[in-house]
Every structure is written in C-alpha cells, then in structure tokens.
Amino acid sequence: xxxxxxxxxxxxxxxFILLGLWLAGGVFLPVNGTRLSGLADKDIPARDDLIRLHxxxxxxxxxxxxxxxxxxxxxxxxxxxxxxxxxxxxxxxLIVQANLDHLKNMVVESIEGQGYHYPVQVQMGxxxxxxxxxxxxxxxxxxxxAVRVVIGQGEGANWWCVLFPPLCFINVATGxxxxxxxxxxxxxxxxxxxNNKAESLSHYPAVPEIAGAPEVGGxxxxxxxxxxxxxxxxxxxxxxxxVSQS
Length: 246
Description:
2 domains, alpha+beta
C-alpha cells in the first residue's frame, strides 16, 4: 500500500522518466499487442498518398442500402487485388483510371441482376470527406482523391473506405467490418510502411478499415495521425493525482 501511495504522489516523476525514454528511443506502449514504434505523434500518411472509395446509395430504404453494400463488395473485391500490386500512388491512380469503365459495367450488371435499373455514376476525382476515426487512425476532414460510385439518385447513406493503400476489409459472409487483433496489427504495420515512399506495398495482405466509424468533431487537421498512448497515460495519471490530493 505504501508503494502504491508513493507512486500516486510521484507519478509526475515517473511520467517524466518515461517521457525521456520515449523521446530518446522512440518507445511506445503496446496497442492491441503491437508496438507502435515510430508511429505516435507522426503525420502519416500524407493526404496525397491515399485513394478512397465512396459509395452512395439511391436512398435509405432497406432494399437500397442492401444494394449499396452489394456494390461495395463487388468494387472492393475487384480493385483490391489489382491495387495490391501497385508500387505507389501514381501506379495506383493509373490502375483505377484504366478500370473505371469496367467498374461501371460491373456495377450496372450487379444492380440489374437484382432486378433494379438505377443509373450509375463512377468517377475518379477529388471530393469532400468528413473527419473519420478508424481505430487509432484519424482521417481529417477535407478533399481526398477518391473513386465515387453513385447509385440512382444518390440520396442515401454513404460508405467510405481506403482503396490505396489497400486498407479495405469486408467479411462478406457476416457483413462485419470490425477488424480482428491480427488484422489490426497488420494494418498498423502497413501504415508504418507508408513512411518509406520507395517501398512496394504488394507483399502486404488486405487489412481492415472500420467502415461506418463515428464522425469526430473538433478542429480540422491536415494529415493522418496516430495518437501516443504514453502521453495519454501520463495525462490521465496527472488528473487522477490532482483529484486524490484535492
């Protein structure tokens, strides 16, 4: 008990010691079994290195939403293997542009196969996105290069994903977009690799992005961020110490 009280009274000392180790060696606390060495408090990846996917349903009816998810599955399953072979954003952009007509025909056929005859728009360009949180990763609001698929009137709920680097994950059998621990760890490794622009991403497996994650309010930031668990832990202990002493 005395040791616990000493730790509480002197948590600021421990905090500075850990902070010094962090700054000296780039040591970070584990998250989901992964050591985020070199990730926390870094801006990764740059916005220009992403190609996102945006699928917009005709309406919010149950049938139109189901159709949206079917289109999502078809597009992701078609493009992901192709983009996994890309050596960078330029090559990925060329792959997507070369497949736009194919994607539109595929989406139209998929929709008509379900008995619907909605018009379909498939475009590649720069579009506005809200702030999105995907586990430890935050994509701030702003304009991103994306493939946009609009079904019918395009008045229904949206679905977002990241096509390049291939971070889309879909469990077609369950419809679940939550990543497992192994998938999330692979995802962190992939994000870390984006610091090296010359490295090919082709050897990485498909890994998850959490679709439908809640939007985050607050100030807009320019780049993707991964938060430092050490800094959060130290701030939390400081607050607890202040409360116990008051």
